[in-house]
Amino acid sequence: MDRAQKAEFVAELNRTFNEVGVVVVTRNLGLTVAQSTVLRNKMRDAGATYKVSKNKLAKIALDGTDYLSLGELLTGPVGLATSIDPVAAAKVAVEFAKTNDKFEIVGGSMGATVLDVEGVKALASLPSLDELRAKIVGLLVAPATKLATVTQAPAAQLARVLMAYADKDKEAA
Question: How is residue 108 annotated by DSSP?
Fold first, then answer.
């Protein structure tokens, strides 16, 4: 990688750090290419990204962002999982770490808030933004549905009474 490519990579990583809601630092202890591909695909499906970076370049990219405190976690062979949704990257990383012993979580950060391994696991147990939005929509729609049911019930009862009278008149005739 020449100097121009390094500068471009640092600028892109800095832009990423300024846009995301969470960064999870992971340690790769000999992942195969196939395992790494599976991890990247799972991250992509969840709306997250996973990059392996040289620690020195990542530390330079952290400069001027809320994630500056992550610099001390960048030792050894690490990877960075990022996502705009604060839960997505953490959730995928924790699930992948459960099934693969060559992949471990070192820590992470939500802006200026540094997370240890337990903090990342706690974050992963929270519902994602999409799940929260669905719950809110469900809560908003439920009263309207109940209101429609309640207002419709008297009309339906009245219709049944009228139908019963009509049937009674037919039988009498």
Answer: E
